[in-house]
Amino acid sequence: NILNCCIIGSLFESAMYIFIFLWTPALTSIENELNPNPVNAIVDGAGLEDDPHSDENLPFGWIFSSFMVCCMLGTIAFSHLSNAGVTASRCLVGVLALSSLSFLAMA
Question: For the chain, where are the alpha helices, taking DSSP H only?
Fold first, then answer.
């Protein structure tokens, strides 16, 4: 039983670390696909490209803070639901249904 908990915890943490390391390059890639002509791509004709790590184009601080607010709202909602007597399995079914609908809306 302890081994299963360790394996599940390791898989969850690895998924979180992959997300943390890849969300900014993924958003930058999407932005480059949607906006192939950045405003400051060439500086004075010298061919100097923008620093890919600059946050002039995407508001990474706002995006990350939105992630954190959503995590906090999820924690608050679960706390209120569990205090109201809703079981964790019912909450899981609701979360999975809502996320499935979200993915369908994106498709």
Answer: 2-34, 60-83, 88-106
Give the pTM: 0.61
Q: Could you identify the residue written with the tokens 């184009």?
A: 57
How far, in Å, CA of 62 to CA of 33, rounded? 21
At 102, the amino acid letter reads S
Give me the pLDDT at residue 50, please.
Answer: 55
Cα dist. 98→39, 68, 70, 79, 94 in Å? 38, 19, 14, 18, 6
Model confidence pLDDT, tens digit, residues 39-68: 555 454 554 455 555 546 788 889 889 989
